[in-house]
User: Fold these one by one.
Assistant:
Number 1:
Amino acid sequence: MSDAICHQCGKPLPATARRHARFCSPAHRAAHHRSSIAHTLPRVQFLTGAGRDNPATMAPYVAIVPETAFPGMYRLKRTDGSLSDMVNLPRARDALTEARRRP
Ligand SMILES: [Zn+2]
């Protein structure tokens, strides 16, 4: 065996591994598979529990995006890609300015 290391963690495979084994454990095989298909999964995130509607734990605003269904209305985009509730432009600018003022 030339590359007898786990493709997930890089540690040597156990002596009992199959000849063509690529991972040291089923958990690392699954983790490697999850990371390999991560780009095909939807990026939608649902905020649940403590984070939901709690500004202190939500990602900061980074941009103003126009609401396509309602011309003249806007939403604020967060660093995690989620969007705020719909607001008018002055309120969106205020919120973004406030978000940038905070450390
Ligand atoms: Zn491993």
Number 2:
Amino acid sequence: MISTLPRFGGADVLTSADVPEPIAAAHEVVIHVHAAGVNRADILQREGHYPPPAGAPAWPGLEVSGTVVSVGGGVTQWAVGDAVCALLAGGGYAQRVCVHEDLVLPMPVGLSHEGAGGLVEAACTVWSTFDAADARAGQTLLVEGGSGGVGHIAVQLGIAMGMRVLTTARGPQRVQRCEEWGATGIDYAREDVMARVRAEGGADVILDVLGAGALDDHLRMLRTGGTLAVIGLQKGVRGELDLGRLLALRARIVGTTLRSRPHEDKARIVRGVRDHVWPLVPERVRPVVHATYPLERAGDAHRALESGKVFGKVVLIPPP
Ligand SMILES: NC(=O)c1ccc[n+]([C@@H]2O[C@H](COP(=O)([O-])OP(=O)(O)OC[C@H]3O[C@@H](n4cnc5c(N)ncnc54)[C@H](OP(=O)(O)O)[C@@H]3O)[C@@H](O)[C@H]2O)c1
């Protein structure tokens, strides 16, 4: 069973359907899915704004955890029965997925399937963005949206890697939850974020899920030599850039995406996450599962994410 999109639109369009069992080709594994993470990108795909890359299944889902049930020829890293999680280009809203062995990770010790199924996409996004921004210990990192699926992993990983982390969230409770990890929280609904960040001395790296509408403010929050790393466009695509400020700061703006990257890039990122992030899970980096929904209620899971009340991740549980 899968949860698919016969047409684009609101959460109602998500519909259960049956498709043939996937078969592992050479260097692929088939995973019986125990948990599938829901991402904001899935909502964009549902609305028709984010098509899956060529070769990916048409139905949504960028990450799963589960058990390996078959392996294709030449697979050396995994065996039937292994508990794993995986980064997908699509198709995770399913009982079974097929994925290249390079994009599979072992289940982190001490984490449930629900936690692991909602961790891989965020961990790979944050790790690759830190890499693109050259983020490192001793720096000040601003995470926009520390309450989000990506943001709550960015806050925890930044702190675990020795950065000083400032982060925004909406409302005192969500801010407080971010502060419990050791971040300095800023309530973006009640405070002047730019003034607060500047009062804190500015940021060396900004992990930006907002985009155009925050571009000018973000440049004003950067320290000299800083990097604005844009990964999301919740506040628009086109903005006006003060190049004079960019030059004076000797600053960089980098954009990065994960889903459409070539296989070799993704495989390198997954290796980096396995080597550098997985040892921190779950003691230093622990995914927050806000709610789980049965796969056949994927529409309700999307509604929950759209409500703005989710802290961390929403995860789908397929039938056994
Ligand atoms: N480039 C990539 O490879 C990549 C990969 C993954 C995700 N993304 C993008 O990253 C973004 C976040 O994804 P997600 O799955 O983490 O979504 P999510 O769980 O829905 O999180 C969205 C976050 O944005 C915050 N936010 C919304 N408006 C804000 C504002 N005005 N100021 C500060 N924060 C604000 C929310 O804070 P509150 O909930 O507290 O309001 C929440 O923390 C999306 O745009 C997604 O498309 C990009």
Number 3:
Amino acid sequence: MPKSEVKTSLLDNMIGVGDSVLLEPLTEDTFLENLKNRFDHSEIYTYIGSVVISVNPYRHLPIYTPEKVEEYRNRNFYELSPHIYALADEAYRSLRDQDKDQCILITGESGAGKTEASKLVMSYVAAVCGKGAEVNQVKEQLLQSNPVLEAFGNAKTMRNDNSSRFGKYMDIEFDFKGDPLGGVISNYLLEKSRVVKQPRGERNFHIFYQLLSGGSEDLLKQLKLEREFNQYNYLGLDSAKVNGVDDAANFRTVKNAMQIVGFLDDEVVLVLEVVAAVLKLGNIEFKPESRVNGLDESRIQDKNELKEICELLGQDQAVLERAFSFRTVEAKQEKVSTTLNVAQAYYARDALAKNLYNRLFTWLVNRINESIKAQTKVRKKVMGVLDIYGFEIFENNSFEQFIINYCNEKLQQIFIELTLKEEQEEYIKEGIEWTHIEYFNNAIICELIENNTNGILAMLDEECLRPGTVTDETFLEKLNQVCAVHERFESRMSKSSRFLNDTTLPHNCFRIQHYAGKVMYHVEGFVDKNNDLLYRDLSQAMWKTNHVLVKSLFPEGNPAKMSLKRPPTAGSQFKASVATLMKNLQTKNPNYIRCIKPNDQKAPHVFAEGLVCHQVRYLGLMENVRVRRAGYAFKQPYESCLERYKMLCSQTWPHWRQGSRDGVKVLLTELQIPPEEFSYGRSKIFIRNPRTLFELEDLRKRRLEDLATLIQKIYRGWKCRTNFLLMKKSQIIISAWTKRHFQRKKYLQLKRVTLIIQSYIRGWKARKLLRELKHQKRCEESATTIAAYWRGFQARRELKRLKEEARRKHAVAVIWAYWLGLKVRREYRKFFRANAGKKIYEFTIQRIMQKYFLELKKKLPSMSPTEKTWPPRPYLFLDDTHTELKRIFHLWRCKKYRDQFTEQKKAIFEEKLEASELFKDKKALYTNSVQQPFQGDYLEISKNPKYQKLNGAVEENIVLADVVNKINRANGKGAPRIFLLTQSNFILADQKSGQIKSTIPVNDITSVSVSKQTDGLFAVHLKEGSTAAAKGDFLFTSDRLIEIITKLYRTIFFKTNQKINVEINNEFLVQFNQDKVCVKFIQGAQKNGNLPTCKRKNNRLLEVTVP
Ligand SMILES: Nc1ncnc2c1ncn2[C@@H]1O[C@H](COP(=O)(O)OP(=O)(O)O)[C@@H](O)[C@H]1O
Ligand SMILES: [Mg+2]
């Protein structure tokens, strides 16, 4: 079923008509116009039915992309716009799916794009067929065979920069899945004359230029080659470089391709050695040398080149040299050697070069075949691609053109046969009545050339084999005799005098009316080229080389296998291979690509109508179209036809439920198309006139517009309605939701209100109930309370009554007792004294007091004055007494304590007390002194004989005697002195001798200064103006500072009844001589024991460092 939604259908958006069969009216002009129109719009492909016409665009078109490949993959031939891919796809699919071997026949003149087309087909097939490592390698080898063959078989010509100079037929083999297995290449007639000579403006085969440009220095040296082209006679000078062709790069490509195809490195070298040898052969030159017998013999001019060739090919130089000088003819055990003249020598040289190259090329093809041949023996499906030289009509046509054109005649023959046969078969298959169409059958021309008895080729062979002098002229004569009456043969000298006066036909020519036009052939060279003679001496010489490849190229040179039979002529060889080819092609389903060259300048965008017209004629394209149209212009399966046109009939639109054939019948009847315009085949409808098809197309287009409008209308209506329905639905939903919302709100409000009321009522009820319950409870409680009260009341009443009763009983008892007492007292009054009560009372008190004191005596606390305890008081009324007793006891206790003291001990305590008043909490040293007993006379002067003298000097009692450190007023250093204090003086004496140094009356002492710290330094300030004060105040240090100062203080007080001032400060002033010096105490590190160190800093400062 064709896909109706395909965008680029053959019939849609087409430029001109994609299929020329549909041209209306069909004339050569309209046909050309159509081609031109399409060409101008970059549509280079046009169909004639299933034949593809390809016009060479001479520029790159973006229509060979992988996307395009995908687009055409698995699509029907007419589904998309014309393309070579459509043909390739059709061929590949019928090969794969219908198991039909295919051949793709590509024809057209040189430069028309045949080789490109063949490559496109191959690359398309490679792209769409199976994948996988093995398959890819096969594909790659098949594709890479092209560059190798092109390098050796293509050359730049006037018509084409990359013209194939050989015919090529390649069978690509596939397995049942359509995966490529391998291939076989057949080559036809390499144009070997090009090796030795090229027409002006053309080149030799590419490989020579590629080798010289791209070969490395080493390689060239190895091959004994120079890089310059002009060193070689065989390389045409005028067009050695081709624009846009990089020979060096191509050489690398070729070498790479050879590697991929499977050439070994050694093989590549062998091949290049042969190429080099051919090139160097051209440089061998001959000069004439006269012999005695008057004949000219040739000699090699410069043997250097010959030597190098022999080195290259591993050849004995003498052998080759001889082969260039002699020709041996063998006939029946007889060998005749003749010398060669210069011309013959050149002929021999060129023949060798041509043969060497030609055989190398054939070897290459075989070698490639060996690599790419299918490895399996399973049955293969085959797709053949034929890229063969096209019809050639030059000014000067020779044997090659004759052969080429013969080949084209054969192809045309097969084209006609297969096309018509196929067409005819289809009509029969479809049951359509078939009227024979007249067309030109070129079988008659093929006959003229290939007939075995009187064909031109047979005649040529006959001439070549005939003994006696054979020339091209004798051959022409023969033709003139045999073919004169043939309607397609023309010659000036032929028996029929038709052409006697035809001046366009020279005498040494004959003309054949080919199907593609008349071609005039010059007979010159026919015999030679057909003979294709290589002197036996040369082939034998070649066989003798050590070069494995060259040796294998000349098997006939082997004397053991030498035969006297002539080798088959070029013509008969070609005829045979063409016959094989034709046979091969006939077994396959043909697909045609007919290439057209739009201009001779290889220029893009130029469409030379004359040139194209000529090709259209000789390719027989018009005939092709006519044949195609003779029956029916257009055929289509019923399904596709119905699908495409069903909208034109109300019964088939939009759906036809019955068979599509009936559908088409109904459709065509309703459209009132005349019945002679179409026929109903079994599976296809056949339309005779293209106009009918176009009418149908027009109707379809208009109907499509209507349908579009209808669709638009319905769509719009549908859209509005859908929209409306949607809106309606939405509105309903919205209103439903709104209503729901409000209802819900109302309901909730009601519910809330109800709840409130309900709760109030319930609350009220509950409270009522609670009240009742409470009332009930209270009632119960009240009853209990009342009962309790009542019982309490009764109990109390009972208690009161009982108490009353008891009181009464007691009162009765008391009264009774009083009464009894009274009675007793009255009775016993006479026995008691009047004051007995007072006495009893006093006695009782006495007893109590006695007991109290005795108890107290037992419990008295200790005698320590510091004891605070006192036993508790036993009776309240003794409170005052008890306290007083405590006070008295304490006083007594203290007195007792005091009474123990001696006078001396008392004084010490007084001193201690005094010291405490002076220093406690004022000077840190004080705490140390608390434990020390104040001994006073530490030196025991009176007893110590050492101090006898001193003792004598002191009249009074000694209060204190000790050794102190007197501080030197000038430098602060200390010196030990005896410090002696009496009741009125204090004396300083030398410690050792006891010599008195100074005596100071205590009245002269005004005050004493000490620090707050632990040091023992003190200053004794003296009354100003006194004799003692001449030198100034004294500074001492002593550990017994507290004792010394206390004693000094007390002594002065006893003496003068005045208290001296004791200044306690960390900074105080002393008077030294005339100066007032500040004594400053600072905290310092411990140095020599606990003693402070004094330092006189300056006149004003004495620093004392206290540890
Ligand atoms: N389809 C194409 N697209 C672009 N260029 C093309 C195409 N076909 C041919 N050519 C150009 O034309 C030249 C000649 O084509 P070629 O196939 O070698 O001709 P032929 O084999 O018929 O002698 C190519 O080298 C290429 O430049
Ligand atoms: Mg080609």
Number 4:
Amino acid sequence: MRSKNILSWNNSLPTTLYSPSSPHSSPRPSGSGTMGGDASLGAPGSLPRRSDHPVGQRIKGIYTDRLRQFTSEGQYSGQNLVSKYFEAVNSDEDHVKLSVYSPPDLSRPTFEEATSHEFKPTHIGASFGPSWSTHWFRIRLTIPEDMLDKERLEFHWDANNEGMVWNEDGHPLQGLSGGGERIEWVIPDAWRDGKEHVFFIEMACNGMFGNPPGDDQIQPPRPNKYYTLHKAQITAVNLEARALYYDFWIIGDAAREFPGDSWESHQANVVANAMMDAFIAGNGSQESIKQARKIGQGYLGDKVDSADVYKAGTDNAIVLGIGQCHIDTCWLWPWAETKRKVARSWSNQCDLMDRYPEHRFACSQAQQFKWLEKYYPSVFDRVKRWVKKGHFHPIGGSWVEHDTNLPSGESLVRQFLYGQRFFESRFGQRHTTFWLPDTFGYSTQIPQICRLAGMSRFFTQKLSWNNINNFPHTTFKWVALDGSQVMCHMPPSETYTASAHFGDVKRSVTQHKSMDQDNTSLLVFGKGDGGGGPTFEHLEKLRRCRGLSDKTGLLPKVTMGGSVDDFFDNLEKKAATGTEFATWYGELYFELHRGTYTTQANNKRSNRQSEFLLREIEYLATLASLKGGYKYPKERIDDMWEGVLLCQFHDCLPGSCIEMCYDDSGELYAEIMETGQHIRKEALQALGFATKNTGKGFVALNTMPWPRSEIVPMPGASTATHGSKYVLASGETGVITGQPMSGSELPGVTVSEIRPGVFRLANERLRVEVQDGVITSLYDVEADREVIAEGGKAGQFVVFDDKPLYWQAWDVEVYHLESRKELKSSKTVIAENDPHRVSVVTETKISDVSWVKTTISLASAVRGEATYVEFDTEVEWRENMKFLKVEFPVDITNTEASYETQYGIIRRPTHYNTTWDMAKFEVCCHKWADLSENGYGVSILNDSKYGFATCGNLMRLSLLRAPKAPDAHADMGRHRIRYAILPHIGALDSRTVRAGYNFNHPLVLQPSSGTEVMHAFKSIALTGSPALILDAVKRGEDDEDVSRGELPKRPGQSIILRVYESLGGRARGTIHSKLPVKKVWKCNVLEDDEEELRLFTAGGNSGVNIELRAFEIATFRLQL
Ligand SMILES: [Zn+2]
């Protein structure tokens, strides 16, 4: 009866005697007189005088290793607990009748479509495919006589792929993920009637991670994968044996993972061995299983079979468990599959909530909710019921879990505007936590944008993947460029898809880096990406972890039933009452996945173009809508934005998806462009613009909030006067007429071959020398200085070998820099020699299959405008794991370079002093990067690129990569890329900021109608500091003539203006309007009025003075 001894030993374990916190723990004072004194003075000892048998020291390692025997599938599985899991199984054709319908052409039909077809008999062992195909199974189930009174009946289905269980009425019940992961569906008790019952399983021929060819999950998917149905059976589960399995697992983990010098580890070892011994002594009988569980209670307590285990005081429960199912909106599968993953995963969670009252599940991404609402209304209703009960927690406030490096500022704002409005309209709530566990680095203005979108908390985890420096905080305040802050938490278990292991709970303390301030943490558990979120197993294990903490100790206490909001509420309360949390200023740079600034160039170009197009059409549509006779096309603009926001998902825009996803996004971007062009045309028509040539000359449209003067080509083959194909378009915001120029009005530009093979392009301000396709000299006439570093070659193409450690599409690794290879160009020739624009062209061979053709141009210098040398580059790119970049060595000295980021500028080192500096060997920029010293600087503009590096005085724009996984054809083909080198006298200032906008949106001449409504463009203007950028003009979301009714309408018309301070200092300005403005409000980005501003009127115009702090983003609502 050894086990009994153990049990009693355990129960009588004198924890108080040895506990360091016990008042009895100090040794007795020596010399008390009883030690070794006269025996007759004390009670006789109970220890027998003679030893009756020898007892050895237990060899801990052996007794620990032995524990595996009990639950392993190996040679002992017929003897151990594994053999007791199921009381009976049945898959014979009398009880499980299978038939199947296989839709053609990889289609994904609805339940109604699918079940209207004929189903053909099939059987276990049959195989189904190819990859991405769908198969609908009808299952006719009859519970066998001998299973009718079993405690728990489950249907087990496993074909190593994903599936969804549907009832006969066409309601999805729960998902299955295959491969032994989630294969069970609990059969309703009502089916124990001896009759036949019908249900369906929709099989998707893909696993959780798509269709990788082998174990390497990021390799491009295999198109012809087949899946064998190897399990379809009724199973009577021995719930007691299942429970013992989890008891034993957690105690075994305690034996293995608690510190070897802790008594808790020794005790776990002793208890677990005793449990095995009890099972063996009882020959694996049901009684012995119960006996083993009873022994386990000595370590786990007696409450682990229900949620009651969490009732024993939450005072010092410092780890809050929250379920999650991180579903990448597209990645190794297309959007169409994500829609099904969402329905499968979330219905699983609703199902678990029925059985586990402590379970809480946090779920982000408005887009996924919107899909569910549309395609799975009954699951959406089920979700809504659980949201109402407070168990299912929509979270995050954004449209998708988007990338934050690449989208524009306005895109980031819209992620929250569209996200928060969706959640508010469907669930009556906005979110306070921005939830972004997996995105690849976090841009510096996120805290400010969060605060403006009603959020004060930020959750992520990805920085634990840094492969150079260990991020120093778990819980801290993250501070934006303007000083705005959010409370940030990164779970110390370092995962957002924890399996709720003992180790995850333990690491919540051992890896917590902010213990000086607060010891609490989130444990975010559940299988991601179609794994369906938490399983019953996770919940069972956590109950045992908690039981262990209460009964035995040492493991931090997990609590359940709370929310992420509760967790952050507590942190904010502490911050408010004096706890000084550490701060982190500026971007949360991710030291990995640096290739994602460049991979999938077409997608990134489309993102940039869509953002500019949306900016323009919202502005034009706003002006047109105020004129009458034109309806603001809110629905189409919403569709465009939702498309752009979807494509900014954290695998899509960064370039880490499979090829299928880029087919999808390419199609969506094409729709966005088409819709946008229609809207633009309609709005321009409403504003009196011509649709075709009218013979009334040409006009350009300046939609930038500042005057512009540009040399623009005449449309078609028209030639302006003075022998030039170009005219000068110059004017304020609005309609600009093109002015033909004579040499006296505007000094021209020349090109000549000054020495064999050396060309000089010169205008009034710059002299450029080009030899063999590169700029060997760029001389600033006015500043009287050379811009190119001595011996340097600007515009030099370089190719690097690009083989990261693993994540091909994601990563470029630091060692790629050592493989730098200059590309040699062929001869340069003059391509254009117009009085107002000249250019030379050069072809450069990259390899036998790839080449670059670059046109370097210089236009006449226009007074008051930045002058730059433009590169228009066409690339045929067919490389294999290579990285193409272009270099600009400049004669500038600074230890920091500046990069445009959303609503501001971020400075990063140009050196590798520390590992933190060196980690930034490749960084993200938006429309420009700049290296300046006192008095002078150089900006590099681009029209579609995001990757950059400045190393010393060498500026390097990243152009194209060639990863072969997960998209084998990423970036293969033809590309056109524009960039420019813009030298400037004085510091980095608004010239560069404006040039970035202008360069991305050149003025274009179009036929004039002669009736353009010029004054419309004067109706709104911003004057004052050139640091203030009027970045967006749109109509109010809830204006009664605009609203789509998802939230309460607001009377009247209003105009929303988004203004930001772009250079990093306090700036004043005035908003002017010729419209009948009644009131002006400063708003948040959700367009809630926050502060009414003083409106003044002068000369029939109204105005309001504004003042922004450094890098502030401000939204103003003009109520008409
Ligand atoms: Zn992800």
